[in-house]
Design goal:
By secondary structure, the protein is mostly helical. It folds into 2 domains: 195 residues, Fumarase C, Chain B, domain 1, CATH 1.10.275; 304 residues, Fumarase C, Chain A, domain 2. Helix 1 links the parallel strand 1 and strand 2. Helix 15 runs antiparallel to helix 16 and helix 15 packs parallel to helix 17. The longest helix has 32 residues. The protein is elongated, with a radius of gyration of 26 Å. Pfam families: Lyase_aromatic (PF00221). Its EC number is 4.3.1.3. It comes from Luteipulveratus flavus.
Length: 518
């Protein structure tokens, strides 16, 4: 079941939760800086202002950046230094990044600013909250981050908007000049002071935001994958005996046990299943792997998602900046901006998404082969030869799965040195996040085709009736999509099924019978 959207997200009272990030990124929940955050911000700013007058150079305060860190910057040029940093680093290219990703990125940068480890001024931190609450979303581009020294270009585009420069999209999606949009919303552009430009761009927020959103989606999709697997096992006259709890206790992977429990719940009280329980009437000893091993695959994916969630939780509790203001008032350079921990799990999730999609496609393919579908027409066609049924729907699945396998190649094993070899090893975590978003969309579509095909097969098993839970999912689909019949324009029906999966409606339909699935 979906969690209620918070009325307000307080930033600075502790690590943000997944629910906080989703609420702000997807549902426009308002944000505010807590009193604790404001106190911490003021304390760390005082440290930076003391250093600003120090004749000894301090990185990010009175020096250049990256390979230019050895150059001392005089006092009268330091405001220009910060502006120049943001302008030069706002160098993204390619298509615009999705609104929810940019909002998550801005929220997570605000969360780090609120820790009091970055040395920004209160008004700078407040500007991020104001942009989020006004629904103003900076234009951020697909390319520009190497996932090290922070998501530099994406974060710089966000910082540029705080300065009143560049372009934003308003709440209605209209492209606006930033200065004009800020004025219309009574937001004052920020004139950056010492260290602030660096503090606004030196974080893993872009890749982390996408990780949190992907985990949120995958948790729902893996429950849905259990539902579509149950529909396929049922429709292909498979057995649920292999999902018995004691069989999974002897291989104690937690995700596997949860998946098997879901399958048992969803298939409970199926007349179709009961029709072939007699071993004398059904001579098949074992089902194919794509049916029998569903809990092992989906369960392994679950455990991987939860490992990724642990990494994301640690990163949500982190303060990523360089240099960083410590609790005892030191300003220290560090390497915490390196995206490796996040990049690794982003890549790992693309692998498991591809494999769950792959086993789903194999189940769909069995429905379409008269030699393996146990009495159904070839391709589930109404009049095979005249009709093609779901033949090409499986082609669509296969094309998506093939792309997902390519997307499963890890980005984090690559590194291109930058900044005159000062930044000589990078994580490519942003690239890992971008391809994972495509993988999550692909898995959604593959599961939708399985659901559409399995629903057709269950209808064709009449007068035998499916399990109440799978029947509820079929009924939800039938609100927008007709049942078996002669060939129709199939793309809209696939899209109806995609929406059923993507919105969580398929999961909700099953849970009206089973209660919450795990």
């Amino acid at each position: 079941m979906t969690s209620p959207v918070p009325a307000e997200v307080a930033v600075g009272t502790g690590p943000l939760s997944f629910e906080d990030v989703v609420a702000v990124a997807r549902h426009d929940a308002p944000v505010r800086l807590s009193d604790e955050a404001l106190t911490a911000v003021r304390r760390s700013r005082a440290v930076i202002e003391d250093l600003a007058s120090d004749p000894i150079p301090h990185y990010g305060v009175s020096t250049g950046f990256g390979a230019l860190a050895t150059k001392h910057i005089p006092l009268e040029l330091r405001a220009q230094l910060q502006r120049s940093l943001v302008r030069s680093h706002a160098a993204g290219s390619g298509p615009e990044v999705e609104r929810e990703v940019v909002r998550a990125t801005m929220l997570l940068r605000l969360s780090t600013l609120a820790t009091g480890h970055t040395g920004v001024r209160e008004e700078t931190a407040q500007a991020y909250a104001q942009l989020l609450n006004a629904g103003l979303t900076p234009v951020v581009h697909e390319y520009g981050s190497l996932g090290c020294s922070g998501d530099l270009a994406p974060l710089a585009h966000c910082a540029l908007a705080v300065m009143g420069e560049g372009q934003v999209r308003d709440r209605d999606g209209k492209l606006r000049d930033t200065a004009e949009a800020l004025q219309d919303n009574d937001i004052q552009p920020v004139q950056l002071a010492e260290k602030e430009g660096l503090a606004l761009i030196n974080g893993t927020d872009g890749m982390l935001g996408q990780l949190v959103l992907a985990i949120t989606d995958l948790r729902r999709l893996l429950k849905t994958a259990d539902i579509t697997a149950a529909m396929s096992v049922e429709g292909l006259l498979g057995t649920d005996d292999v999902f018995a709890a004691d069989l999974h206790e002897i291989r104690p992977h937690p995700g596997q046990a949860l998946s098997a429990a879901n399958l048992r719940k969803v298939m409970a009280d199926s007349q179709i299943r009961e029709s072939h329980r007699d071993p004398e009437a059904c001579t098949r000893v074992q089902d194919a792997y794509s049916l029998r091993c569903s809990p092992q695959v989906a369960g392994g994916a679950r455990d991987t998602v939860e490992h990724a969630a642990q990494v994301a939780g640690r990163e949500l509790a982190a303060a990523i900046d360089n240099p960083v203001v410590t609790r005892d008032g030191r300003v220290e350079s560090n390497g915490n901006f390196h995206g490796a921990p996040v990049a690794y799990v982003l890549d790992f999730l693309a692998i498991v998404a591809a494999d769950v999609a792959s086993i789903s496609e194999r189940r769909t393919d069995r429905f379409l082969d008269a030699a393996r579908n146990h009495g159904l027409h070839p391709f589930l066609a109404d009049d095979p030869g005249v009709d093609s049924g779901h033949m090409i729907a499986q082609y669509t699945q296969a094309a998506i799965v093939s792309e997902m396998k390519r997307l499963a190649a890890p980005a984090s094993v690559d590194s291109i040195p930058s900044s005159a070899m000062q930044e000589d090893h990078v994580s490519m975590g942003w690239s890992a996040a971008r391809k994972l978003r495509r993988s999550v969309d692909g898995l959604t579509r593959v599961l939708a085709v399985e659901l559409l095909t399995a629903a057709r097969a269950l209808d064709l098993r009449a007068p035998l009736t499916p399990a109440p839970a799978t029947a509820a999912v079929v009924a939800a689909l039938r609100e927008t999509t007709e049942g078996p019949g002669t060939d129709r324009f199939l793309a809209p029906e696939i899209e109806n099924a995609v929406q059923l999966v993507a919105t969580g409606a398929a999961l909700a339909a099953a849970e009206t019978v089973t209660g919450p699935l795990q």
